[in-house]
Design brief:
The structure holds 2 protein chains of 2 kinds.
Chain A lengths: L1 H20 L10 E6 L9 H8 L8 E6 L8 H5 L5 E4 L1 H9 L4 E8 L4 E6 L14 E4 L4 H10 L8 E4 L5 H4 L5 E5 L3 H7 L4 E5 L9 E7 H6 L1 H20 L1 H11 L7 H15 L2 H6 L6 H13 L12 H7 L2
Parallel strand pairs in A: 1-2, 1-3, 6-7, 6-8
Antiparallel strand pairs in A: 3-10, 4-10, 5-8, 5-9
Helix pairs in contact in A: 2-9, 2-10, 9-14, 10-11
Chain B lengths: L10 H27 L9 H10 L1 H35 L4 H12 L3 H12 L4 H24 L3 H9 L4 H35 L8 H10 L3 H29 L14 H5 L2 H22 L10 H10 L3 H39 L4 H13 L2 H12 L3 H25 L3 H9 L4 H40 L2 H11 L3 H33 L1 H4 L2
Classes of the chains: A alpha/beta, B mainly alpha.
């Protein structure tokens, strides 16, 4: 597939060179600049994209990609809808409410097949099943109440029998014994605890029916219609980058730390995080159909989970057409 | 400390070096003790741990500092230039003053949670939001004292200018500018830590590097030494800026404060038309809001217009529910912000008064006061909540700290504005320090105190929303953050409008009290 693209582009390049691109002093194959809005600060969480950038996976497809860092006060939706970024990283639980508010977004790629939410506890008093939560104190941001409620409903646990302790997003209350467990992500607080010498045990919510696509790539309907080639090249670069990532997560961590010397990233933390997110990102489905893929069945289960969270979602939130072109389905 | 204090004995020169060192030693000792008590709780790093972290990460920290400091300095410059420009216009054309002050206040009251992402979309990648937020954090706290200072001149001086047949321009250059200098410097001193905080919060909108970015990382990774190293570096820079501006102020403002005699003018209160002024300000604000969004062509998905907010709060089918949610969150916040605000005011004025009576206490009080306020609230908020619990104590304390420092600095400057001649009169009657305080210094402090009390309203709202957003996850600060993450921009903008209006009302309430008291004690501030 990509063969035909290259041919077409080299033709275009030859044509434009003949039309006087040389007079402008620019390279014959001009790169299109696009921006990709990440959902959080640079870290190995997005290392596949860094590899794509460093290995030239995007450059050889005619793209000059700018990776925009996220942050606590940097929601992804505004830059994507206003065109500052062509594509952004979101999650079903963020995209669906935005679409309900009138944003014309579609999910075109699912980088994290399994939702990263876990209940983290310490190995001395582990929580291994949802039923273990009964009678325990769980530390969580109040904003995540619907997540816990959904987990309880899915597993017939009475949420009233769990003591909720509102905490910030930090592992401190667990380590200081103020709570018995935390609701957090598999890839951040547990990693921080291990680096600090603690032994966390994590129970993945996705293993107990809480199925929500995370790290979904979103674009507007207008971009999907009018900038399809750019989106396709962007996703092809992502696939190449993440494939290389999976082969050597340590190298991906090292690249990340070296690429962002001003962020104070710790190599060991990044290596551990890189390793832990592999099982969330790659599955039999992605091995069989290609990275970023999802099935109709998983969309149905996502819709069920969203219903438990209080949001009505329809299957047309997902648009697999570009991915189908890439993976040749 | 006072211009007329006539006892600069030789020992004072030694004291000038010993006192700050003593204060620093006391602080370090207390800090080390606290860190020992809290060891193993992942809350407080000891001075030694902080020093070790700084030694090991000098390059990283200095690059981040250069970035944030550069943005803060630019914001400081732009923000203060804007303040001077606004104050000049307000003095030259007094008709515009009420409206200008109202608009300036409204913009200052806009919560950071909301302005950050919009600025990021407007500027795109780069330093724009950081510089703008730093400027927005300072312009108002300079504008208010400057306006006070521009009026703090005896009417006889204005009469002199007028007797030469000169107008408002000459008044401004020859009388008002000189009278305003001490007040301007007080404003600039308060602005220094605020600009740094603004630049750090600006980095939360997706900046590539800087101390705010490192702070987010350090807090997530449980890296307590890094968090405190960041807090200490930010505090050290703010203290240095505070001291430098103070030194500059002492070098430039040598003249003793003048005697200001103005007759109480209660009729002045009636001449203003508060309702009309408020109406004009409101209409202008709405026009600016709508105009800005149209001019920048911001998508209505996240940049809501006045009509959208009106609909969300009053007309939409779920308007009642929106109002209930919003009011509940506001109520939660009010329970924290009011006590914190009052405590901060009382502490600030109280400590400033105490230092006038017992100057020796300044050795410990001054550095502690400055460092407390200079530690950026974005680093301390989550830690203080961990330390003091999620109950009201932590939030109230942080709000009080934010209000305390500007009040303290303003009152200290105000106390120094006591005219030497009048103090001499009291001294010649052998009046003691308390009598001098009550009869001369406190009345002289009142304009500055009330200016601080007014500024304290938006400052405390800023503090409480930041603590709720980054710390406790409750109240209207958390509601705004949650609304933004779930794209509920109707709720976000409704919150912005309500928070800004409540701040303005609080401010107006303080101004109402102020006008009644100052018309007796400092009539020149009230007369038009």
């Amino acid at each position: 597939m990509s063969q035909t693209r290259l041919t077409r582009r080299s033709l275009l390049a030859a044509g434009s060179a003949g039309l006087g691109a040389l007079a402008l002093g620019r390279p014959a194959h001009a790169q299109t600049s696009v921006a990709f809005q990440l959902s959080w600060l640079h870290s190995v969480q997005f290392a596949g994209s860094y590899i794509a950038q460093e290995n030239g996976a995007w450059a050889e497809r005619g793209l000059d990609v700018q990776l925009l860092q996220g942050g606590p006060n940097a929601p992804v939706e505004p830059p994507v809808i206003s065109g500052t970024a062509l594509m952004g990283i979101s999650g079903v639980d963020y995209t669906a409410p935005a679409v309900n508010e009138g944003a014309p977004f579609k999910i075109i790629f699912v980088a994290m097949q399994k939702n990263p939410f876990v209940v983290a506890s310490l190995s001395g008093a582990p929580i291994e099943r949802p039923q273990d939560l009964v009678g325990k104190r769980i530390g969580m941001a109040l904003a995540n109440m619907p997540v816990l409620q959904a987990l309880c409903t899915l597993n017939d646990v009475n949420i009233d029998e769990i003591e909720l302790v509102p905490t910030q997003y930090t592992a401190t209350p667990l380590l200081s014994g103020d709570v018995d467990c935390l609701l957090c992500w598999e890839t951040d607080l547990p990693v921080a605890m291990i680096i600090q010498g603690a032994e966390p045990v994590t129970m993945l919510l996705a293993d107990y029916g809480y199925e929500l696509h995370s790290q979904c790539y979103i674009a507007t309907e207008e971009s999907i219609a009018n900038r399809r080639d750019e989106l396709r090249a962007l996703l092809e670069g992502e696939i190449a980058g993440w494939t290389a990532y999976r082969e050597d997560t340590d190298a991906a961590a090292e690249l990340t730390v070296n690429k962002f010397p001003d962020l104070g990233l710790d190599l060991e933390t990044q290596k551990l995080q890189a390793e832990r997110q592999v099982p969330l990102m790659f599955s039999d489905v992605s091995d069989e159909n290609g990275f970023g893929w999802w099935t109709e069945e998983s969309v149905a289960r996502n819709i069920e989970t969203m219903k438990l969270l209080g949001f009505e979602v329809t299957p047309d939130l997902w648009d697999r057409s570009i991915l189908e072109e890439i993976h040749g389905a | 400390m006072n211009a007329v204090a006539a006892d600069p004995a030789p020992s004072r020169r030694v004291g000038a070096f010993v006192e700050p060192l003593l204060g620093l030693a006391v602080i370090l000792l207390g800090w080390e003790l606290a860190a020992r008590v809290l060891a193993g709780t992942f809350i407080l790093a000891s001075p030694l741990e902080v020093a070790r972290y700084l030694a090991q990460n000098t390059g990283l920290m200095s690059r981040a500092l250069a970035e944030t400091l550069g943005n803060a300095a630019l914001g400081f410059l732009w923000g203060n230039l804007a303040a001077v420009a606004l104050a000049t216009v307000a003095i030259l054309w007094p008709v515009t003053q009420r409206t200008l002050s109202g608009l300036a206040l409204l913009v200052f009251c806009l919560p950071l949670v909301a302005t950050g992402p919009i600025l990021r979309v407007l500027y795109g990648p780069g330093d724009g939001p950081q510089v703008t937020l730093a400027a927005m954090a300072v312009y108002y706290t300079t504008y208010v004292p400057l306006l006070v200072g521009l009026r703090a001149a005896p009417s006889s001086w204005f009469e002199l200018i007028r007797s030469y047949g000169r107008g408002r321009g000459s008044e401004l250059v020859h009388v008002r500018a000189m009278a305003a200098l001490p007040y301007l410097f007080a404003g600039l001193q308060i602005a220094a830590p605020a600009a740094f905080l603004g630049a750090m919060v600006g980095e939360f909108t997706g900046a590539e590097r800087g101390m705010g970015v490192l702070t987010i990382r350090a807090m997530r990774a449980l890296d307590v030494p890094a968090t405190w190293a960041l807090a200490c570096t930010a505090a050290a820079v703010s203290i240095a800026a505070y001291a430098a501006i103070g030194a500059l102020a002492r070098a430039l403002t040598k003249a003793p404060p003048p005697v200001i005699l103005a007759s109480p003018d209660t009729s002045g209160l009636r001449r203003n038309k508060p309702i009309l002024n408020a109406f004009i300000t409101l209409v202008l604000a709405l026009a600016l809001w709508w105009g800005a969004m149209a001019a920048f062509d911001l998508t209505p998905f996240f940049a809501k217009r006045p009509g959208d907010v009106l609909e969300a709060l009053l007309l939409a089918p779920d308007a009642a529910q929106t109002r209930t949610t919003l009011l509940a969150a506001l109520g939660e916040t009010a329970k924290l912000v009011v006590p914190g605000y009052l405590a901060g005011l009382a502490l600030g004025a109280g400590l400033a008064t105490l230092l006038t009576l017992v100057p020796a206490a300044a050795a410990v009080a001054m550095p502690l006061a400055v460092s407390l306020r200079s530690v950026p609230i974005v680093t301390t908020a989550p830690l203080a909540v961990l330390l003091l619990g999620r109950g009201p104590a932590g939030t109230i304390t942080l709000v009080a700290v934010m209000v305390f420092f500007p009040t303290f600095v303003a009152c200290l400057h105000g106390l120094r504005q006591a005219p030497g001649q009048i103090l001499d009169v009291l001294r010649s009657y052998a009046a003691g320090p308390v009598a001098r305080l009550v009869h001369v210094r406190l009345p002289a402090m009142l304009p500055a105190f009330f200016a601080a009390a007014r500024m304290g309203v938006p400052a405390s709202v800023l503090a409480v929303t930041v603590v709720e957003w980054l710390g406790t996850g409750q109240g209207v600060g958390a509601l705004m953050a949650l609304s933004a993450s779930l794209s509920d921009y109707d709720m976000l903008w409704s919150s912005i409008v309500v928070v800004a209006l409540v701040s303005v009302l609080g401010y107006a309430g303080v101004a109402w009290v102020e006008a009644r008291i100052l018309s007796r004690y400092a009539a020149e501030q009230v007369a038009r």
